[in-house]
Amino acid sequence: MKFGVVTFPGSNCDQDCYHVAAEVLNKPTDMVWHKDKQDLSEYDCLILPGGFSYGDYLRTGAIARFSPIMESVIEYAEAGGLVIGICNGFQILLEAGLLPGAMKVNDSLKFVCDYTKLEVVNDDTPFTNRCNSGDILEIPVAHGEGNYHIDEEGLAELIANQQIVVRYLSEEENPNGSVDNIAGICNQERNVFGLMPHPERCSESILGNGSTDGYQIFASIVEYLSKRGEECGE
Amino acid sequence: MENKPWEAEGLTKSEYEMIVDILGRKPNRTELGMYGVMWSEHCSYKNSKAVLRNLPTEGECVLQGPGENAGVIDIGDNQAVSFKIESHNHPSAIEPYQGAATGVGGIIRDIFTMGARPIACLDSLRFGDLEDQHVQFLFEGVVSGISGYGNCIGVPTVGGEVHFSAAYQDNPLVNAMCIGLMEHEDLATGTAKGVGNPVMVVGATTGRDGIQGASFASDELTEESEEDRPAVQVGDPFMEKLLLEASLELIKTGALVGIQDMGAAGLTGSSCEMASRGGAGIELDVDLVPKRETGMNAYEVMLSESQERMLVVPKKGKEDLVKQIFDKWDLNAAVIGKVTDDGMMRILNKGEIVAEAPARSLADDAPEYERESKKPDYLEEAQSYDWSQLEEPQDYNQALLEVLSSPNIASKEWVYQQYDHMVQTNTVVLPGSDAAVLRVKGTEKGLAVATDCNGRYCYLDPETGGAIAVAEAARNVVCSGAEPLAITDGLNFGNPLKPEIFWQFEKCIEGIGEACLSLGTPVTGGNVSFYNESPEAAIYPTPIIGMVGLLEDIEQATTIDFKDEGDLILLLGETKDELGASEYLQALYGLETGQPPSLDLDLEKRVQEVCLEAIKAGVVKSAHDCADGGLVVALAESCISGDLGAKIELVSDLAPSSLLFSESQSRIVISVAEEDLAQVKKLAAAKDIPISELGRVTGNSLVVNDLVNLEVGELKKEWTESIPTLIEG
Amino acid sequence: MDWKVKIKVMLKKSILDPQGQAVEDGLEALGYNNVSEVKVGKHLELSIEDVATEEELEEQVEEMCERLLANPVIEDYTFQVEEMEG
Amino acid sequence: MDWKVKIKVMLKKSILDPQGQAVEDGLEALGYNNVSEVKVGKHLELSIEDVATEEELEEQVEEMCERLLANPVIEDYTFQVEEMEG
Ligand SMILES: Nc1ncnc2c1ncn2[C@@H]1O[C@H](COP(=O)(O)OP(=O)(O)O)[C@@H](O)[C@H]1O
Ligand SMILES: [Mg+2]
To answer: Subunits that touch chain B (at least 3 Cβ pairs < 8 angstroms)?
Structure first.
């Protein structure tokens, strides 16, 4: 089981994601460089990390979406590979059209770094299978543009297809004004997941307020991949 | 201008004559410009050097003291920490967002120039009265500038302080501190040597921004400053993130002789400082410098303060390696000259010499002044102010709420929520505690960092105020479970040519020096910012202390919040009748006067030792330094953070106001499990420090004698909502 | 031929504009009570070389907008072109 | 009378525009090699009610720009006004 963490110019959570995959989950992990279009099939899961790719200039994720590596990521995702985009990674997935919707600046117009409470809406994904729907996770956010937007039709579709994976627990917990308190969504096929909160920041009890709820997300991926491996007789 | 060419460059006539002497001829405009910036206060420290020599700079842990881009200390396991503080006051007064942002960018560059990966920033801020609209504009702009730059580059801003006082009305202070981590062998220096080695400029292209920035920072703010527009630089944190990665990668290759960031005085400062340190000369051609604008002359190229650039001297033959690494990160790298052996800075333009001067004379031979110093008249009257004539409050609940909602005491969450304080996943103790604590991945260790300074104390008693700043910073670090190691100082003062200001400066340094010696925390570097004055008056003398401490075991990181119902609350140290210069006088009576609290450094040291020993013994559940606002504020903060109440019985013959709000130093509030009381008492007895049992953690109200009885929820509301309400109405 | 291009990118009408709202509130706080419907978008200016006809140019600009400069999910764009004097 | 106002706010010429630079690089990466001098600024649109003359209006808009909408230290602004049909 092997993880790949993509580094774009301006990514700044790439090492944090690497740390969780390699040191906390103890899985083989590579850093993947943005300049090379390459065959990604050796990876079982790709992480698009947070940060400010290309300075977040113009729109978050807009320029990164055209990095050579993104062609490979799109192929990889279309072939069913697992992709998780965290914060800026989520924004890039939206710009790349791998997930529906778009990101606006936070309603407060301010960057916000704080723990938020999330409700697991769909526990039947490779990213949440260790949770139960209704579980409450405490995971920090850190972003200035996390105000998720999708039109009504699109929202109805997300709901109908159970693509909303995590929601901020309430209006009060919603740090950015996202429509329907959406914090994270997946594609219809369930193999691509994007979320604004940072699970890699709460995967070890020593950090911050001690929450390890982020670990559940990564552990879900590992569990999903192990099961899939067994089924394939690996 | 024709007959007084020195004035345009901020030099005096006698300085001009010195230059003529050095060169043996009249300088041309480019040369004069180079002397102007290098001999400015900002670059040469000409008015402060003599006094700064009195600071203790040596210690077991010091690997690099003052003189380089930043200090470096040893933290064991072949690891070292580089850290420094720097001011960006004047740019922030004019353009708060960009001023603060480029301040953060500058200090981060100083740290990775040393070969260290920046792991955290702190910001120490001072503003005028927060009810004033212009102050709000400055405050909001500065905070979002720090947030904009630090968040983007991915260095967490984990701590700092904000104080408000009319003394800073037109002259806010913006000091940023950065700390970085490295292996010993990666320590890089800003040295140019080895005849024939290439000199390269890497990073951003050069434009006309910030020309004369360095001499500008050394002038008093005037109405015209608002017109000095080109002096404002715009930062590009994205570019700096790339520069950071590329520079660290380059340093790791071992191909470098020296590396230096281009901060104040741009290419001039970096090249002549590097040459001077190496006892060498540098020859460079401004035509070869990659530029953003057309038609720039030599003067402009040499004095530009465009951000996100570095000067590097690789070993001969390694030019292509440098280019290759910078190309990987989409950055420029261009050879612009070479190291020579004649000690001269020789500037060419398309091969023709346009300026030539001894590097040493620019970098190190600025005149040094011993300024006149005089004790100010205001002091005696202020210090003899008798607060006991004030009426005691009718209602101590109300008094506590008023102090808690003073913006100086109130929660700074509104500020640090805008900072990414968790990126890099090392933040073990989050902002809002006494010091931030960071883990050092791959080890058991941790680092604690804090900044402190009470400008009001320094105004009313500079020597004690300076010493208290060090003591409080150390206390904050100790309360977090760390051993204080060393400091950096950000010295913000008014115009040093005024004898009263210079006296404040001398006295503050004296106090800082004494405290550093006594607490064993040497000064490894810092920054002097003079001329912080507006037409009305100078700012309070504000020597900000940035302290770094080491935890051998990160599991011992301690926070301020009460943890468990039933725990005992103890006070290490003793409350005295010391309301002078307190937040209480300010919040209730609008008074910023009186004799500041006294400081017994010997007692301070012992109190800190006992606290740390108890933490290391594993018996301390919470520790909180008792400072601004006094004992009851410390108790309230521990209640609020822990969402737990406390029942406190204070026995004393002090007046209730003093009992609750006195700001006596050398006090720490800790909470322990009942069964550990004896052990803590033993530790205290061994060091002969006062210790008293204050009460217990219990319920959901803070109750102190029959004076205070308030629900924690109400305390919390008052404390957290104060700043947002003031700003957002 | 060389051209100067000005592009305006605004959030679609139907989409709430937090920045516009904040500016409106800010203006009101300063006492401008007669201001409404504030929208904040982007204005880009750029030079384009070596395009023979205005038609070709418009095609290129439109493509650049669709692909990068605007996000068609939430934004609309308009642009003006102008020939530069050689 | 009611008015529609359009305001353009751009960084001053001499001031670094990192965003413009990034967009230019982004366009180049997409193969648009003939694009240069990209500048990114703000475009604001707003309605103003009850101002009698264009002169008065311009005075108000200028004041709003100086005080809030632009940062005169680093930005320049220009605007257009248009009377709205009642
Ligand atoms: N400007 C700031 N930036 C980041 N954190 C801050 C800032 N100001 C205050 N804080 C946080 O709030 C805590 C409390 O601040 P303060 O009341 O000044 O504490 P103390 O009196 O213990 O120094 C600080 O230790 C820090 O964690
Ligand atoms: Mg403190």
So the answer is: A, D
